[in-house]
């Protein structure tokens, strides 16, 4: 609004300055007019200009990155979002994510791929040139019988976690042992604990007629118990130690038969929580002579599914403060070793209910809770109806010599349904899920390991601890619910003993799955550990231990 020469009021529309000045030059309004731009419009124009400048800067940076030679850390379908291996992202910086817009349905068809940053698994990576070489198994002082057992398994070089754990556990220390999947944790605890058992004199027999093992390993699944039992038996055979596996799924007489061994029973017992609880409840065995106990795949054992039987097992062992040791009052208590590849937050608080965690030493590797750096990992945003065609295309493109394939589903019903579809397409496969009977499950995974069939459709039952060195492709047909589940699934490839690092392909379908993918992509771009893990586990062991 302005006053003309005659005192009349002139009303002008509120237009951007550039439009008003154009019209003024055309004589469309009187001279001396004052134009006011609304504040909201001015802010909107400023924000638009800032976005244009920022977009131009990002485009220039992407162009510079594209022209600079070098390997990629993350490859995207959109080249401007790819990240070269030389590029670093600050700790507090918010990187531009490929998955940022994946909750929109128009994102279907987009993907990104994490490229391998090293050729071998971290567990096999040699020490730096200026660092001292790690000791061999013989230099660690292991019993000759155990060295003979290692020769039978064709194992001659310790991995990083074995070099770390064996000296500490041989001294009788209770420990939290945390290392990435496929790094050789089974031998890391079996070798030193069996060495202690061989070095300790035979203790007096326990309750008359009851098997009383001196070593106990608790495992969450029968498949894992069978696998670890085979390794323990191979190590113990030259020393003449009896090893038994205890798995449920049958009548009480079956538990008695599994424990059958010359008096005073097996020296080493490996079992699942349900079977061990039932055997203790029926007084088929006693733990009063127990020298050491291992909780393998501890995060699974401490899930609510296994918590009740696990507590009852631990109540029978001389673990608590003030309890007499295996050789009587005043003797050292049972050595406890807690082993896992992922330790969710709060694990130490849970352990305090069972034992004195303050006397535990923590053993961790540098790659704990990190994405496997030697494995290619691809994430594809797809519609639910497109997952099956994508999977069939993957399977049909693979040659017979490309290694075995693991296909993970969330539920047993999806495993069965997908199996019927593969049957229709003449794709030979096996199925493994928890709703199968014990008899049906027996031998399925062994047949897969032996190479009789190269495709296994399974639930997370096959994601924990099992040796899958022949697997070269993992397909997450259903995306996992948690980051630890993703790490365990991805750890089925690129293991110690694998011929090739392998690859992981994940189908991302639902909006809530995108949240996990964003966390994984952010950790990959920043080269940091994955969120939601127990930070108290990631600390070095005390000096002198």
Count of separate DSSP helical elements? 17
**What count of structural domains?**
2
What is the beta-strand fraction?
5-15%
Straight-line distance between termini: 84 Å
Write out the CATH superfamily name of the largest domain. P-loop containing nucleotide triphosphate hydrolases
CATH class of the largest domain: Alpha Beta
Give the name of the CATH architecture of the largest domain: 3-Layer(aba) Sandwich
Number of strands: 18
Mean pLDDT: 84
Rg computed from alpha carbons, rounded to a whole number of angstroms: 31 Å
Keywords:
single chain; 545 residues; alpha/beta; Rossmann fold; 2 domains; 9-stranded mixed β-sheet; 7-stranded parallel β-sheet; 18 strands; 34% helix; disordered N terminus; disordered C terminus
């Amino acid at each position: 609004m302005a006053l003309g020469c005659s005192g009349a009021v002139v009303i002008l529309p509120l237009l951007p300055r550039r439009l008003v000045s154009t019209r003024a030059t055309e004589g469309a309004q009187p001279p001396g007019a004052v134009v006011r731009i609304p504040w909201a419009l001015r802010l909107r124009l400023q924000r638009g200009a800032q976005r244009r400048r920022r977009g131009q800067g990002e485009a220039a940076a992407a162009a510079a990155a594209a022209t600079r030679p070098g390997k990629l850390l993350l490859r995207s379908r959109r080249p401007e979002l790819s990240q070269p291996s030389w590029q670093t992202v600050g700790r507090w910086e918010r990187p531009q994510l490929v998955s940022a817009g994946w909750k929109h349905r128009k994102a279907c068809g987009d993907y990104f791929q994490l490229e391998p940053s090293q050729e071998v698994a971290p567990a096999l990576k040699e020490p730096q040139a200026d660092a001292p070489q790690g000791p061999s198994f013989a230099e660690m002082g292991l019993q000759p019988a155990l060295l003979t057992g290692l020769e039978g398994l064709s194992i001659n070089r310790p991995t990083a976690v074995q070099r770390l754990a064996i000296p500490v556990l041989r001294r009788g220390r209770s420990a939290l042992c945390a290392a990435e999947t496929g790094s050789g944790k089974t031998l890391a605890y079996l070798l030193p604990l069996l060495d202690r058992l061989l070095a300790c004199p035979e203790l007096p027999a326990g309750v008359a007629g009851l098997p009383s093992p001196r070593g106990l390993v608790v495992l969450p699944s029968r498949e894992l118990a069978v696998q670890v039992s085979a390794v323990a038996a191979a190590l113990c055979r030259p020393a003449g130690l009896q090893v038994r596996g205890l798995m449920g799924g049958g009548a009480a007489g079956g538990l008695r038969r599994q424990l059958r061994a010359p008096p005073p029973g097996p020296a080493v017992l490996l079992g699942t929580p349900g079977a061990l609880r039932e055997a203790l409840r029926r007084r088929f065995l006693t733990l009063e002579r127990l020298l050491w106990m291992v909780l393998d795949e501890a995060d699974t054992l401490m899930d609510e599914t296994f918590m009740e039987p696990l507590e009852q097992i631990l109540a029978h062992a001389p673990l608590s403060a003030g309890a007499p040791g295996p050789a009587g009052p005043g003797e050292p208590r049972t050595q406890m070793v807690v082993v896992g590849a992922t330790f969710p937050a709060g694990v130490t608080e849970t352990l305090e209910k069972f034992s004195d965690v303050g006397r535990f030493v923590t053993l961790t590797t540098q790659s704990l809770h990190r994405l496997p750096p030697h494995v290619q990992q691809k994430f594809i945003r797809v519609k639910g109806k497109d997952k099956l065609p994508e999977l069939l295309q993957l399977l049909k493109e693979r040659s017979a010599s490309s290694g075995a394939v693991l296909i993970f589903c969330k539920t047993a019903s999806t495993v069965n349904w997908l199996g019927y579809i593969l049957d229709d397409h003449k794709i030979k496969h096996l199925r493994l899920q928890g709703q199968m009977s014990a008899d049906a499950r027996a031998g399925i995974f062994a047949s897969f390991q032996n190479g009789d069939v190269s495709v296994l459709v399974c639930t997370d039952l096959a994601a924990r601890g099992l040796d899958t060195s022949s697997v070269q492709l993992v397909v997450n047909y259903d995306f996992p619910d948690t980051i630890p589940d993703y790490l365990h699934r991805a750890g089925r490839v690129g293991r110690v003993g694998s011929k090739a690092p392998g690859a992981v392909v994940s189908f991302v379908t639902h909006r809530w799955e995108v949240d996990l993918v964003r966390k994984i992509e952010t950790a990959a771009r920043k080269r940091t550990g994955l969120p939601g893990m127990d930070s108290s586990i990631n600390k070095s062991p005390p000096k002198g231990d």
